[in-house]
Design a protein that fits this description.
Number of helices: 6
Distance between the termini: 50 Å
Strand content: over 45%
Largest sheet: 22 strands, antiparallel, barrel
């Protein structure tokens, strides 16, 4: 294909994608009407199976799993519903070792201060570039700025959410200091089903969700939509998020399957500004994202294979007004308009050679980037043409059962490696290993991993910025960030009702990438080295109608590190009987430093806070319809707290909702 034809194809694709984003509102309205009509017809045909009313109290958080990738915490769909999760920040803030930041009840402003997730102190730099946020193992992020946007990752399309707190560079590559993976919803049951939810509450916050699914032996389809909006708890704290998700799957044969998934999101959120700051316009962050994933998979008796082809296309428009900096730099209006596109291919095969040995491997190829337009009201307009980076990464993984006996249990060794060939920077090799010992209901593990995190396309943007930025071509001399992770842990099954987890860990980071914002001048450089140590424990307990959970994380690191509270923890319980479900949890987060990586301000201290949340719901069945009514409360004790200095969060907030399933 000629360069001219390729350029025209890219321009046409961009126009098509942009048109889809503009039409998202009308699509949601059309789908709403179609789903209601379709569900009514399906009910008349009586071809669906009703899910039984749950008679066992669901967990507060799912149990952690110790496997070849280390310890993984997961949240099921039911856990997410009980949390009344609006996005990843509200879904994950009770997970031990995870801290968050946000401004508004609905809508994430940007990728850090106004909507960020941090794992054991990682994710604060660029911001979030050390952490992968994924759908079905495929990273979603702004290709230019190399960080996630929370509003593009709809929790409504997740069957569950996995949290990887240890580095996963051998399995996931760059941006692998931690990871969050949304496992997508699919139509698993035969026949027609539909679900709906409406909610309204404090600060004029409303929610509308719908889902319909059809399952057949050879084909299944699932489609969902959601719309959230809020006026906010402060002036200019309003936001709106809407999402459409579809998952279509085909059974090609006994061994071969194919699927196609699409996720479309559109959002905006305003910045209410720190208390005491008054500026003439409202800062606003707008996002629009389209994500497509095609998958072909094979499952045999002793082997597995998959091929994934993915495309992400979107816009992140930061419409801002700088606070007056020191003279001689005047305040000025500034719009930073980003258009990005990422695409790539992932392959993986796995072969079990014996009862003791399994070997897997594959090749990933990713291309990511985009263009930026910085429109100053007073000053030059900076337009940065499209720039993309590429990474080609073959990887291999070996799992071997070293020994097994009734007396000694199982001793399993897992080893993995990934070679990353970058289009601009030097190649790197990531390593990962874990030794697991399973005996008498207990699992013990020792884990080591070494990974690299490459500078993103943003470094070339700063390199093309005029003075006072003084980066120029120096960005090409940057080194990838390096991490060495050590972890020892154990999990004990204490009878059939109690599970206890305990782990200690240390991260040593070299060549941390940071930038210094003007005035007087702006630079990007490898900041140096730092270390983080920690201890984490969790206990799950079940007694008849009750499930209880407690988790705590203790962190310590070099002086001045942000998002590193010395102590954070969660207590929670669920109770269910005769259709009633009551959930309550308590969260504590110690003092911590916060920074805004977009500007040159130093760290600021955020005081400790405690939050209590609760939900009471009742479930019943009438006229072949499953119903659930609930009352949800956030910050029940009306605590005064903030995630960022000068940004008080809502006091006691209440929401009433109704769900029904056909």
């Amino acid at each position: 294909m000629s360069q001219a034809a390729l350029k025209q194809l890219t321009e046409d694709e961009t126009l098509i994608m942009a048109s889809m984003g503009r039409q998202l509102n009308s699509i949601i309205n059309s789908i709403s009407l179609g789903v209601i009509a379709f569900s009514t017809a399906a009910r008349a045909q009586n071809v669906y199976d009703l899910e039984p009313v749950v008679s066992v109290a669901p967990p507060v958080l799912e149990k952690s799993a110790i496997e070849s990738r280390g310890k993984i915490d997961s949240l099921s769909r039911e856990v997410l519903d009980n949390l009344h999760a609006t996005d990843l920040t509200s879904a994950l803030r009770r997970v031990p070792g995870v801290t968050i930041s946000r401004y508004n009840p609905v809508g994430a402003y940007g990728g850090s201060d106004g909507g960020g997730v941090f794992i054991r102190g990682h994710g604060t730099a660029r911001p979030g570039s050390e952490i992968s946020t994924m759908i079905d193992g495929v990273p979603l992020f702004v290709g230019v700025w190399t960080h996630p946007l929370i509003d593009t990752l709809s929790v409504d399309m997740a069957e569950s959410i996995e949290v990887f707190k240890s580095p996963q560079s051998a399995l996931m590559g760059s941006m692998g200091f931690g990871a969050i993976n949304l496992k997508p919803l699919s139509a698993n049951d035969l026949g027609f089903k539909s679900r709906y939810e409406l909610s309204y509450g404090s600060h004029e916050t409303s929610l509308a969700k719908g889902l319909w699914a059809y399952g057949h032996e050879d084909f299944s389809t699932l489609l969902s939509f959601s719309h959230r909006q809020s006026e906010g708890h402060r002036e200019n704290a309003d936001g709106e998020v809407q999402a459409i998700y579809g998952n279509f799957a085909w059974k090609l044969s006994e061994a071969w399957d194919a699927s196609f998934m699409v996720s479309l999101t559109d959002s905006h959120a305003n910045d209410p500004e720190p208390i005491g700051i008054s500026i003439p316009i409202t800062e606003r962050y707008e996002t629009s994202n389209r994500f497509y994933l095609g998958k072909l998979s094979y499952t045999g008796d002793d082997s597995e294979f998959f091929l994934k082809i993915h495309l992400e296309d979107g816009e992140g428009d930061w419409r801002q007004w700088h606070q007056p900096p020191p003279p001689p730099f005047p305040a000025q209006q500034l719009d930073t308009l980003t258009s990005y596109n990422n695409y790539g291919v992932k392959t993986k095969w796995s072969r079990r050679f014996s009862e003791r040995t399994t070997l897997s491997g594959g090749v990933d190829w990713d291309r990511f980037g985009g263009e930026v337009d910085e429109n100053y009201a007073a000053g030059p307009r900076n337009q940065f043409d499209s720039q993309h980076f590429e990474i080609l990464a073959p990887h291999v993984w070996l799992s071997h059962l070293l020994l097994e006996s009734d007396d000694s249990g199982k001793l399993i060794l897992d080893l993995g490696s990934r070679y990353m060939q970058h289009s601009v920077f030097d190649s790197e090799i990531a390593l990962q290993s874990i030794l697991r010992w399973e005996i008498d209901g207990a699992s013990y593990y020792a884990q080591y991993s070494r990974g690299s995190n490459y500078p993103g396309v943003y470094v070339s943007v700063f390199g093309r910025r005029p003075p006072p930025w003084q980066v120029a071509e120096d960005w090409r001399n940057l080194e990838p960030e390096q991490i060495d992770h050590f972890e020892l842990g154990a999990q004990w099954e204490l009878g059939s009702q109690t599970t206890l987890n305990l782990s200690v860990f240390e991260d040593k980071v070299e060549n941390a990438i940071r930038f210094i914002a003007p005035p007087p001048a702006g630079f990007i450089q490898n900041f140096g080295d730092y270390s983080i140590q920690g201890l984490e424990s969790m206990v799950h307990h079940k007694v008849e109608d009750w499930t209880l959970f407690a988790g705590a994380t203790v962190l310590d690191g070099d002086e001045g590190l942000p998002a590193l509270p010395e102590l954070s923890g969660t207590l929670g319980f669920n109770w269910m009987r005769n259709g009633w479900l009551f959930s309550m949890d308590y969260q504590y987060v110690d003092d911590q430093l916060t920074t805004n990586p977009r500007f040159g301000a130093g760290p600021q201290l955020i005081e400790a806070y405690s939050l209590v949340s609760a939900q009471l719901s009742y479930r019943w069945t009438a006229s072949s319809v499953d119903w659930e009514a609930y009352l949800h409360a956030e910050n029940l004790l009306d605590e005064t707290y903030e995630y960022r200095k000068g940004y008080p969060m809502p006091g006691a907030s209440f929401f009433f909702g109704l769900k029904w399933s056909l």
